[in-house]
Every structure is written in structure tokens, then in C-alpha cells.
Amino acid sequence: MIVQKYKDMLQGKSVIRQLSEFATARGKEIGYENVFDYSLGNPSVPVPQKFTDVMIDMLQHRNPMELHGYSQSLGIPAVRDKIAASLNARFGMNYTGNHIFMTTGAAGAIAHAVRCVSGPGDEILTFAPYFPEYNPYINLTGAALKVVPADTAAFQINFDAFEEMLTDRVAAVLINSPNNPSGTVYSSETLSRLAQIMSDRQRQYGHDIFLISDEPYREIVFEGVDSPYPSKFYDNTLSCYSFSKSLSLPGERIGYVAVNPACTDAELISAMCSQISRGTGHNCPPSIIQLAVAEVLDLTADLSVYETNMRILYKELTALGLECVKPGGTFYIFPKAPEEDAVAFCEKAKKYDLILVPSDTFGVKGYVRLAYCIDTEKVERSLEALRRLIKMEY
User: Fold this and answer.
1) Which of 106, 206, 315, 391 has its CA 20 to 30 A from that of 270?
2) Residue 89 belongs to what H/E stretch?
3) SS3 state at 101
4) Which residues contact 360 (CB under 8 A, 6 or more apart)?
5) Which residues neighbour 173 within 8 Å (Cβ) at sequence distance 6 or greater?
6) What is the largest CA-CA distance in the chain?
């Protein structure tokens, strides 16, 4: 007999993916260049040339078994050492390779981190707006995801609601900064207050409360924005990273968990992750990609286009009278819809070949997400469609 819960999940397919599929189908009708597809957060800039050069050189000169064989279950030791050294140099940490566990992207990192620090019946808190895939990431482990209502004034943290929900059932808090979908970056003030509250509750309840920090947009931060490293603020932090956005490598599925050396059982957690892999299948990410990213750790793709696109859209959206918190990073912007029903607004937008994502699945009603990881020329052409949408419908 098939498992009913997964069968039931077929009725709740990702709204983002459905909209992306609609955009693709519409593009076949009118030409995809005429569809202003703001649905999917797929990086739009090429990988650094050095990454390509490294891949070519390895394929030509390295032992094929080294490149294509299984890596060790924790990841290639030399790669883990290089990642630790890079993090230490950038953020003043003291990681060693033993604190790094290689994963299949940030999703794989979160899958391991959650299972390391929580079990069935535990609660994990996250903050709206949040990435909707956190629901299956957490709930299918047997733990329960609880969502703290949004601070819609700035999309930082609603601390009053957080303190109320931070009960002794909470095993971990999951944050995402820079944030998908709002583009907000948690400030040093926000992280300091978060760490103080969590530290106080650890002492009060007599058990660890871990911070799981989802950081795939860490490198996409705009000029003048305070973008602190969460592990500097709270000892019991597991950082979950992906190279998907920084290097424009989403299809390669490579990332890691970085275990704060000061956290409880820090020397055991990476080894625990290797045991978790036996049950999740997120084991031994591709050796060749581990080796390649290790050679470009201090590089990124040319991410400047995202700030250019953000400025164009923010200026236009606010000029049209839409409320919008200015993003501090990522490639998302999250304006308030001109009506309460964001789904209805996004349906109207389709008439103008604008593909926008309603905010309901992000844990906030009445907003829309635009993923502006598209060519700037297309962003500029979309402005007239936005103007017509607001003029004709509102």
C-alpha cells in the first residue's frame, strides 16, 4: 500500500512551481521574452569563469576516480578544511574541518541540522514571512514547525510574539537572513536580542535551544546594509549554506552545515550528520563539485545585477503607491498588494503577462513576491505592464 501522506501532498504542490510552469506554457504561446516571469528564484547570472576553468582543468588532469568516486560520508577532508579556513578569515570564527559537513545544498543542510537537534514531538519556530518548503523540511521529521507572525513594519522579528511562542517544547529556532521572500537582512540589533532571549530561555528550561541559520543568500547583500554572521551572536548555532546563489550553481546541489565550535557537542554533530545521511539519502554530494567549489570559496558570480534590478523595481512599485520594505539583499522584493486577496491580485496580473507569487504560502496575507533574478532589460520592459495593471484594475 502506498503511503497516504505523500499521496495527499500531491494536492499541495508548490505554488511557485505551478506559476513557473504557467509562465513556461504562456511563453510557448507568445514568446517567453514577452512573459514577465517573477516566479522562480533561479539565479540569472553566469558562474565565475574561474569555476569553469577549474572544472575543465580537473577533468583534463585529475584522476577520474578522485573526481567521480564517492567522497567520504562527511565530505572530502581537504574541502572541509578550506571551508573552515575561509569562514574563519571572513567572520572571525574558529572552525576546523571537523565542524563542516558537506551537503546537497541548503535543503540537505537543513535536513541534517533539524534531525541533529530535534525529534518527534519537538517544536521548531520560524518567522513569517518564510520559505514555504520549511513545512515539509520540518514536519516530515516528526517535529512541528510553528510560525511566529510577521513584523510587517520592517520584516525583522516580532519579538513579543516570539517570546510568547518560545515554550519549553521548542528545540530550535530556524531563521533565514537575508530573507526569502522579503529581502530583509536581520540587523546586529535583531540578532543580539534574539540571542539574549534564547540564552535566557535555555537557562530557564534547562535544555539547549539551537539556532538553525539558513544562509543561501549570504553573499547577496546591498550597499550600506548591516549583514552580520549569526553564529557570532549565539553559541548553539548551526549554519546551513548553499553555493547555489553565490556562485550561480543551483543545479549542482552543493552546500554544508557549519557547526559553531562553541555549541553543545560541537565535536559530534558532523559525525552525527553522517549517520543521519544513512536514512535521508542526502549523502556523499558529488566529489567533483566539492573539489571545484573549494578552489573558488572567496569568489562569487557577478551579483551586482540584483541590486540594479531591486532599485528599478522598488522605485516603480513605490511610485505606483504600493507599500514596500526596501530589500537589503537577495533577489526578491515583497510589496503589499493593492487588495487584501493577494491570490486575486496575482490572477489579475496574469492578464498583463506578469507572473507574481502571492504571499499566502509564505505565512503572510496580502503581499506578493517578485523574484527579480532576470535580465535588467526585461525588468525595465515589465514596468509598463505593472503600470497598466494598477491603472486598469485599481
Assistant:
1) 206
2) helix 77-91
3) strand
4) 15, 342, 343
5) 124, 125, 126, 166, 194, 198, 209, 210, 211, 212
6) 63
Distance CA(47)–CA(150), nearest Å, equals 34
Q: β-strand 368-371 against 332-333: which pairing, if any?
A: antiparallel
Domains located in the chain, CATH noted: 4-47+302-393 (3.90.1150.10), 50-293 (3.40.640.10)
pLDDT at 3 over 90: no
**Inter-CA distances, 132 with 13, 17, 22, 122, Å:** 11, 12, 19, 19
**Each residue of 246-255: pLDDT tens digit?**
999 999 999 9
Cα gap 393→345, rounded to integer Å: 9
DSSP symbol at 175? E
pLDDT at 294: 98
> What is the pLDDT averaged over residues 183-199?
98
**pLDDT attached to residue 126:** 98
Residue-level pLDDT at 103: 96
3-class state of residue 211 by DSSP: strand
Instruction: Please classify residue 354 by burial: count the beta carbons closer than 10 Å to its beta carbon, then call 0-12 exposed, 13-18 middle and 19+ buried.
Output: buried
Residue 329, strand partner residues:
221
Q: What angle do CA 99, 246, 132 make, to 5 degrees?
A: 85
Closest Cα partner for 353 from 56, 20, 10, 34? 34
**What CA dihedral angle connects 47, 52, 55 and 56, to 10 degrees?**
160
Q: Which of 195, 158, 203, 143 is nearest to 363 (CA)?
A: 158
Q: Residue 260: its pLDDT value, please?
A: 98
Confidence of residue 279 (pLDDT cuts 50, 70, 90): confident
Global confidence as pTM: 0.96
CB 221 within 8 A of CB 178: yes
- What confidence category does residue 282 fall into, taking pLDDT thresholds of 50, 70 and 90? confident
Strand-pairing partners, residue 332, are: 371
Strand order in the sheet with 123-127: 100-103, 255-259, 237-242, 210-214, 170-176, 123-127, 144-148
Q: How far apart are CA 282 and CA 107, in angstroms?
A: 9
Report d(CA 12, CA 5) in Å as an integer.
Answer: 11
d(CA 219, CA 216): 8
Alpha-carbon distance of 315 to 291, in angstroms, equals 42
